[in-house]
Amino acid sequence: MNKKYQKMHILFEDSASTLSINLHTMKVDNWLFKHAVYTNYKTADCCIIQFETVDGPFCYYRGYVPDFFPKQGGDYVELDIDKNGFIPKWKVSDRQIDKALKEYKLYYNPSDDE
After folding, report:
1. In angstroms, rounded to a whole number, what is the distance separating the alpha carbons of residues 24 and 5?
2. pTM: predicted TM-score of the whole model, two decimal places
């Protein structure tokens, strides 16, 4: 099954770091830790996510952590990442991403300009 969204890049402003996740495999890009990690990032009511699409442009999201995250969204990005960089038992559908983008006013989708 082809997915419209390929990758999700989550920006953590306080640390100026980014977590990039391949949405086909649910694997974190460039995972270097070699052990399991539980993340609990506070987004200060402003989760910034870029979604990379099949066609290349990005969709930008800014708001609370979307409900499709494993811990039901809110203020924290909470993820269990295994030692190989995979996020087990978590799937994100294109429909869930589209819904989140439409529910929040602070987003940009280049395909809306066409």
Report:
1. 9
2. 0.83
